[in-house]
Amino acid sequence: MRSRVQSPVYRWVPYLSATVLAASLSGCRFGNYVADQNTSAATADPISGYYETEASALAFCAAGTTTNCVSAALTEIPSLVKAVVTNPVILYLTDASTGEGYLVASDGSDYSLPTSFSSTSLISYSGSTSADTLWDDAACTTSIHIEESGSISKTASASETSTGLPLSGSVSLTLSFIQSFDGDCSPSLTAMKACLEDPAQCGGATSEEDAQYQEAVQSFFAPYVNAGAMTADDIPSLSSIAYEVTFD
């Protein structure tokens, strides 16, 4: 059992959202820039604008002794993706020479994901977060790899959303998030399974902390267990968990 000291559990539970949702930029900055795309600015930047898109598929995967991927209801799309890929979504080009840019929510929150435009019609991005200790053993680290691919279709004539936003076209996207467990992770994952099953095994300084840690572990694995990609008994042998969301 882990020593009853302040647990580092909250370093990895919000790890994905804290790392990936790094850009919370001014709504004025994004909004004004995109609105300018129906002016001469569109000549210099043929990408930035509002694009229609809608989720069409979701899958959860768990890899360990075996790899299992299952489809899930669109209502189970993780909050990270829901926060960023709104309909419409903003495609925002920041560096025309490299194609670097962002996918940005159009609801005023300005949650975003980094992306890259390989041309004026294609999206292609691959990136990873830095590694961090998974539980409380430095021998086991975790990191998240992000893959994005998609295509952009520009509108032939000016059009607007039902709320009056100027549409530049539509975008098809596939977003994949793979969280790997690297190193000697069986002890850490076994400890997490024990915490999941019994809060007294979570290592908190108080019963209240134990309950918080157990809730965090439950939230971490619940999407994959509920979808049927894995069971709690699979946790000690996991090498990675992943989800993929497709938008058309």
Helical stretch tally: 7
Unreliable segments of 5+ consecutive residues = 1-29, 38-42
Counted up, domains total: 1
**Looking at the structure, what is the overall shape?**
elongated
Please estimate the helix content: 25-40%
What is the residue-averaged pLDDT? 86
Rg (C-alpha, Å): 20 Å
Q: Beta-strand percentage?
A: 35-45%
Q: Gap between N and C termini, in Å?
A: 47 Å
Note the run of SSEs as H and E. HHHHEEEHEEEEEEEHHE
Summarize the biggest pleated sheet. 11 strands, mixed
Please report the total strand number as a whole number: 11
Structural class: alpha+beta
Question: How would you characterize this protein structure?
Answer:
The structure is a single chain. The chain is an alpha+beta fold. The chain has one domain (9-182, 236-247). The protein contains seven helices and eleven strands. It has helices spanning 9-12, 15-20, 27-35, 41-44, 79-84, 186-197, 207-227, and strands at residues 49-52, 55-63, 67-71, 89-95, 100-105, 112-116, 122-128, 132-133, 140-160, 166-183, 240-247. α6 packs across α7 (207-227). The model is unreliable at 1-29 and 38-42 (pLDDT under 50).
